[in-house]
Amino acid sequence: MQLKVCSTQRDHNLSFHSLPLAGNYRTRLVRTFLDFRCTNTPRNLDTMLLLSHLRCISKAKLVTFLVGLTLMFFIMASYILMWDKERLPLTSIPYQVRPADTSTNTADVLLDKSFMDRKMLLNINSKLQYTSRKVPDKKDIVDTNPHLFSVIPRHFFPGVKSPCWYQEISKELGSDPYKSNRFTLRSKTFKNICDHMRADFHQHVWRRDGRRFRLRCLPYFYIIGQPKCGTTDLFHRLLMLPEVKFNIIKEPHWWTRKRFGYIRFRTGFQERFPIDDYLDLFDLAAQSIQGGIYGNSSGDHHALQIITGEASASTMWDNQAWSYLHGDINKSEPPFLAQDFIHAVQPGAKIIIMLRDPVERLYSDYLYFTMVNKSSEDFHQKVIESVHLFQRCLSDRSLRSCVYNTSLYNTMPVRLTLGMYFVFLLDWLTVFHKEQILVLRLEDYAANLKETIKNVFDFLDALCQQTLRQH
């Protein structure tokens, strides 16, 4: 099948509603919970009820009530954007778990006069609107890592679906191209694959004018997040298809962490993973594709259609490295985001995003990362503390600044900001065209797996009708 050319023209006027969702969902306008002008009840009756309640409560409780509703907006705004007008707000999913009610009174916790007052409330309400980020110039992006852009060319091999090119083999590489790959130290499976590829590496070397070259490939698509939203299941289902040649490591986290020298940020700086280590992950696909280019394989056409991808669930949101590397920079937001670099080297990449009810996602995230004392009561208290911290941030900073704030992220007992999908999505739309991004919901994936997978196949344009019937 022929690869469709994706436009890379930037469109700063795009909205979340213009994304190609997996399914024909109609959308509704989003309003904050502080807006009482539009309700489903008659206007006169609504006004009378509101005035009646206002007479019965103190000013302090009114502030608390409004704050609570504002916080509900932050948690649910992204999910509301994808609701169907004719459906219930929350779609049931298998094994759905909701924390039980506790005796903790949220209003009492929030009603802290030293922390929240009317002025702060008005300040927070004024920051709910998303402001489009200023995309850095490509020259500034290149200057941050000239070696990266010297390795990856501006144009890829024609007639091949995947983004591939020939890279000259240096003399230092010798006959063992994988001896210094850092991924092999952390994955025994990948080490075994490298041992296998090393044995017949010479068979895949292309020689010309006394120089030696190897075929290199980048991922054709990226499953970028979010965590605990089903990306692992989707990855392994695609891995079973003959047209898709994944790397064995599902989450290399190269664009967000390892290229800067961080495995986990809490363990500090360790060692940078060079671009060649990352490209080695896709050598299995490159070797299969090279067989089609040379025409020495019975499946020549099939080999040229092979694609590969990766599924690092941190790619969508994690830009903490800049605060670790450039803590002296006086900026409220990261100067560069991961998508700036991916787009700069690969403007035609396809992006797959999987989302989930943000409350369900947060609870699943809590269960996965919490080692001891797991309980719905503990989760409830940690969420209250995180919301409290986010309120404090909003009193001084913009919404985007708080979402990307590394100090706030490290202080929160639960990863609350990861559920603010609309900020991340709209930031990805500042560099990638809307047709290059597919948004899936875990609820739809669980309820109708066959249809959702078909939508992924159609988006990737990689599979024939026979493959669709088989799966």
TrEMBL record:
Membrane listed as a keyword: yes
Taxonomic placement: Eukaryota, Metazoa, Chordata, Craniata, Vertebrata
Superkingdom of this protein's organism: Eukaryota
Sequence ranges assigned to domain Sulfotransferase in this UniProt record: 223-461
InterPro entries, per database record: CS_Sulfotransferase, P-loop_NTPase, Sulfotransferase_dom
Protein name as catalogued: Sulfotransferase
Residues annotated as transmembrane: 62-83
Broad EC category: transferase
